[in-house]
Amino acid sequence: MDIHTHIPVLLNPFVDALCIDRDGHYVDTTFGRGGHARALLSRLSDKGRLLALDRDPQAIAEGERLAADDARFCIRHWSFADLGEALDEVGWCNINGIGFDLGVSSPQLDDASRGFAFGKDGPLDMRMDTSGGKTLAERLQHVGERELARILREYGDERYSGRIARAILRARDESKLMRTSELENVCFHAAPRQARYGRTHPATRTFQALRIWVNDEMGQLEAGIKGAMDRLASGGRLAVISFHSGEDRRVRDLIEARVHPCTCPPQFPVCVCGKTPDMRWVQKKPLRSSEDECNRNPRSRTARLRIAEKLQ
User: Fold this and answer.
1) Residues near 290 by Cβ (< 8 Å), separated by ≥ 6?
2) pLDDT digits (tens, 9 = 90+) for 99-139
């Protein structure tokens, strides 16, 4: 597979938001196949530095090839939830910009062996980090109907979460759920007849929700965003690209809690809690991909970019 078939989403707005100092130190917390990282490096001077993180061993291998060619760049096999530890390892303190591009990359989706996509038959894996952790198949062996329905509803906004959860567990118990094609078939037939042939395939939200569950993406996201805001230098930028409403709401709420931290009741005439903001919004209303970008890269159509800046 050609790694360069991956098209980075919202590339120029993302890099424009982050790169405020050509001599600065930056972190790409989701290297993927390096689209955003290479664009950032093109903006940096010889003094600038870029650290990348990723959970995917294939991404790390690609990043190590880039690091061999560019001394300004280094990559570490860390989750962005462990951002602080990664920065301590490389000895960085004042970070000028930290970027997140959430979700999965095109090469991950296109690789059937990873199990991310329902359009390609493969094992029920879905792990971002294939070097450890439980696969989707293993996790499904120990989940109940109520919990699975909650996962589909909360992580995938799945309208028919209850009936799909029941169908998945029935197929599991009958040993008819071993491959992504079988999971896709279960989702398709569990959806009401009128919902099977719309713009969105009936398995889309379920696959998204299960991927988020397998990789603890919401827990990782909270730790990563909080860690990033803690480690930014004054004036440093945080830029986050998300691809579904649940992620975007969580990003918004985490930043908003630092922009407006006051916990005083609204009837108080003045603040007495003493909590002061240490972030400000640069772009609270999320930037969206242009029509031209959506036409060139359909996977960008749900992308949202939010930008904030450290005050102190």
Assistant:
1) none
2) 999 988 777 888 899 999 888 899 999 999 988 899 999 99
Distances (CA, A) of 181 to 82, 121, 187, 234: 34, 5, 10, 49
Whole-number Å distance between alpha carbons of 302 and 151: 20
Fold of 130-214: DNA polymerase; domain 1 (1.10.150)
What does the pLDDT look like over 202-215, one tens digit per residue?
A: 999 999 999 999 99
Q: Is CATH 3.40.50.720 the right assignment for the domain spanning 3-106+217-310?
A: no
Query: pTM score > 0.70 for this model?
Result: yes
In the chain, where the domains are located: 3-106+217-310, 130-214
Containing 152, the helix (H) or strand (E) segment is: helix 145-156
- Any idea what DSSP says for residue 132? S
Which band of pLDDT confidence, cut at 50, 70 and 90, is reported for residue 22?
A: very high
